[in-house]
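Whiteboard transcription, Tuesday session. T.W. wrote the structure tokens on the left side:
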């Protein structure tokens, strides 16, 4: 379970978000929408522990029954997928995926096998040694999502993840993302401008409901 309790974010005298409470169950995707400048990125920044010092925040982040808002980002167990994938350009596709595997997963052979299995699952068998720059947009998008999931996060944040893809790819990649999240039972928060991004039957929350 992914839970935000009573989050308030202010900037001096102005209140950006007031009293945000949200619970997301494993495998569910809650979508947060809101106009440009309404605070969606600021919310995500708080969740990953990277709030700009211009803001002040109070509130709690709970994951799997543990309070985590005081933990550094690498210890929070929050994964994020941005609109621009941020694959490391100097690593191969397989190395990008291996990099995400938790350090506790020991053994070079087992790690390699996990990466190869992931590549097969996303239709990229034989791509281990490819330079990420040579991938198509859809291939990059799939690798980026899997890299976020291989880290075994307790919650996933999706920041406008479909906006850079053209219409056909976007529809395909949406389906792929929703399927992976349901399969891996990750509680997910999706931030988007586009009503078409909302998963079928998913909950949609307007950020303005937590604004004065
Ligand atoms: N570092 C900063 N210092 C001061 N104000 C900031 C800073 N970053 C963002 N803001 C302001 O905080 C408000 C919320 O910005 P934020 O980027 O969270 O909005 P958003 O909903 O993500 O917008 P968009 O959809 O355009 O990305 C805006 O009024 C913005 O100008």
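and on the right, the sequence the group agreed on:
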């Amino acid at each position: 379970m992914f839970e935000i309790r009573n989050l308030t974010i202010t900037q001096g005298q102005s209140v950006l978000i007031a009293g945000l409470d949200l619970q997301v169950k494993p495998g569910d995707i809650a979508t947060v929408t809101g106009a440009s400048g309404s605070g969606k990125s600021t919310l995500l920044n708080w969740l990953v522990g990277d709030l700009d010092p211009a803001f002040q925040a109070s509130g709690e982040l709970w994951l799997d029954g543990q309070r985590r808002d005081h933990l550094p980002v690498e210890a929070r167990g929050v994964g994020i997928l941005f609109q621009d994938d941020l694959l490391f350009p100097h690593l191969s596709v397989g190395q990008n995926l291996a990099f995400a595997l938790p350090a506790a997963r020991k053994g070079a052979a087992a790690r390699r096998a996990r990466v190869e299995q992931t590549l097969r699952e996303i239709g990229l068998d034989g791509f281990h040694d490819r330079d990420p720059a040579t991938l198509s947009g859809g291939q990059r998008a799939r690798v980026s999502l899997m890299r976020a999931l291989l880290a075994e996060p307790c919650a996933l944040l999706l920041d406008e993840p479909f906006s850079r893809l053209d219409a056909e790819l976007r529809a395909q990649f949406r389906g792929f993302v929703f399927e992976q999240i349901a399969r891996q039972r990750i509680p997910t928060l999706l931030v988007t401008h586009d009503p078409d991004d909302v998963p079928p039957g998913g909950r949609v929350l307007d950020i303005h409901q937590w604004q004065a």
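Someone added at the bottom: Strands lie at 2-11, 14-24, 29-33, 56-63, 66-67, 78-81, 155-159, 188-191, 203-206.
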